[in-house]
Amino acid sequence: xxxxxxxxxxxxxxxxxxxxxxxxxxxxxxxxxxxxxxxxxxxxxxxxxxxxxxxxxxxxxxxxxxxxxxxxxxxxxxxxxxxxxxxxxxxxxxxxxxxxxxxxxxxxxxxxxxxxxxxxxxxxxxxxxxxxxxxxxxxxxxxxxxxxxxxxxxxxxxxxxxxxxxxxxxxxxxxxxxxxxxxxxxxxxxxxxxxxxxxxxxxxxxxxxxxxxxxxxxxxxxxxxxxxxxxxxxxxxxxxxxxxxxxxxxxxxxxxxxxxxxxxxxxxxxxxxxxxxxxxxxxxxxxxxxxxxxxxxxxxxxxxxxxxxxxxxxxxxxxxxxxxxxxxxxxxxxxxxxxxxxxxxxxxxxxxxxxxxxxxxxxxxxxxxxxxxxxxxxxxxxxxxxxxxxxxxxxxxxxxxxxxxxxxxxxxxxxxxxxxxxxxxxxxxxxxxxxxxxxxxxxxxxxxxxxxxxxxxxxxxxxxxxxxxxxxxxxxxx
Amino acid sequence: xxxxxxxxxxxxxxxxxxxxxxxxxxxxxxxxxxxxxxxxxxxxxxxxxxxxxxxxxxxxxxxxxxxxxxxxxxxxxxxxxxxxxxxxxxxxxxxxxxxxxxxxxxxxxxxxxxxxxxxxxxxxxxxxxxxxxxxxxxxxxxxxxxxxxxxxxxxxxxxxxxxxxxxxxxxxxxxxxxxxxxxxxxxxxxxxxxxxxxxxxxxxxxxxxxxxxxxxxxxxxxxxxxxxxxxxxxxxxxxxxxxxxxxxxxxxxxxxxxxxxxxxxxxxxxxxxxxxxxxxxxxxxxxxxxxxxxxxxxxxxxxxxxxxxxxxxxxxxxxxxxxxxxxxxxxxxxxxx
Lengths: 478, 337
Hints:
Order of helices and strands of chain B: HHHHHHHHHHHHEEHH
Number of strands of chain B: 2
Radius of gyration of chain A: 24 Å
Helix content of chain A: 55-70%
Largest interface: A-B, 70 and 65 residues
Oligomer: heterodimer
Structural class of chain B: mainly alpha
Number of domains of chain A: 1
Distance between the termini of chain B: 49 Å
Number of domains of chain B: 1
């Protein structure tokens, strides 16, 4: 019982740390590229609105980056303090992948971020642009290597086991393991969607409190267009990822669908309460045949149920059903809300320009077209990407249980023999700190937005209503 | 101490131990100065605090990354040792992490928060810096004690915790001497003088305790002819301390000449102390329990990491020099432009 307590507490602690951590890379990966976009637009057009957008978001980037660095340091220690068995068993494979993550990426970001944040007036324009590019590139590479390792844990290949230790036999197979391309694309899109809704939401907030500056218009349009363009791609990619999971981790898919019995023409469970004791769902609303159709593209296709993953002696080899089932539904529902809202926003902005003002070359969207309810809906959706991303990760990671590395080692085999009360104490402290920091983080973004909306952002950019810039005060470099 | 370069199972662990050692040293010097600036924070006026923040602003992210590299190398190259050391140091590691989180985010928040919250973030910046330094000193003490957990080793670790925190304040002061001017620089000179004792006592305590704890290290130090290999370290350290003491009584020099010297001398001093420790513990990664050869990953895996490291580490060093060059000169208030 002692080890079980330590196990579940260590798992919660790891989940808490990595959930808190992932929030910030999710923002910095795509925000790096969005900043690069702003920077390039400024270089192309010399239009100060792009630089104003850059200056605003670079502060959010700095804050997110700092949160990512400090919570990332926590992650690198967690392996040793709580999960020594992981590296002892698969260290020969996880080691190089983690090393490349730190080497190629982390440093590229951390070194160049100084120039990116504070160097605009100290270095030539091309170097500042290069630094912005390298920071974005670095965050992406960072994501790539960590996704490679994570995917390998889901779909391991290219290794052999000798005396209980994994040894690499084919690095190409390890890196390009079957689930990696799908997971990487899915995560990159998740990051871009998170940022597009963050940018749109914060800009909508600034608009609602009376900010009519040209940079707010540019930012709002960037966010909405990016979100509307990517969400259909993400839904398609999610479907592909699901098919990949069905092939390699059928127990996870069965838990996501809440499917207990192997059957042909399996229904899609829209709502239900999975009951693991009775091994059935209660209060079910379902559409016949649809799950089979989605996953096999055949209304009568066969799907494997959870009961297939119980050993003869009663050992359960499938994940806990309810958390996977619910996380999956939260993710899908958030994605649908993103789809509806971004396309509705796009339509309203397009209609205003097309019907009331006529087309102006290069301007086919008018922010004025957005009705208040839509703007107000965009504000809380600023953090919808976080909800969807976390729900998605819970689906896939809880869905991997009881395995840590699928088919190679269970989570229980890796846990450290640290007394449960000690783990509980540190867990509670982490949770308290994370809650406070999250509160402060969102509070500071709201404060920065208010400050910028009042034009107290260091640079007064005076706008008249036609969208033409009035006085642009550019303060000289210190 | 050189390995057999024809045998990968011999030289690869050695190469990684060297690389990890280098990362730790760079970390201790670089994050040492910015942690030290954090510890000195409450002694300054609000305007001076902004300057102090400005003096470390463009660097601290990259500085802390050396810790990630060091721990990362321990994790990937010596996985057995990573588990053993970090499980033994569970609580101090946790305290250090909380400290790093607090100071890292306080640093960013204080620059962006409204004025009435700034005092809270200032306090957290100081607390986080101090917690981090104390926790690292505590870990250093326990490591020297062979990771034994008794009241005596805890007492020793508490002492090294205090000394390291004061030592970080010292190197932080020397950094500020270089990066600031006027009243703040004068204060920094005084802080440097007043915290030099932490360095002396810290080096002294570790030097006295290390051979006492392990007969192996005792033999390595105090037998003939080994004693002559080690002799330059204490002699050079003593000279450096005397030199620093003289400099700090006379600084700042006219026209602010050679303001970088105390920091350079402090770096040299830290390096010497570190080399002494490395000499003592080699080839063990967990003192007297696990050597780098026993703890190392498979040579094939190490080789793959090494290829990446050979490309990236020189580039990182080059970029670091570039970043320190771009942000050279006296610190100003931090601005995002």
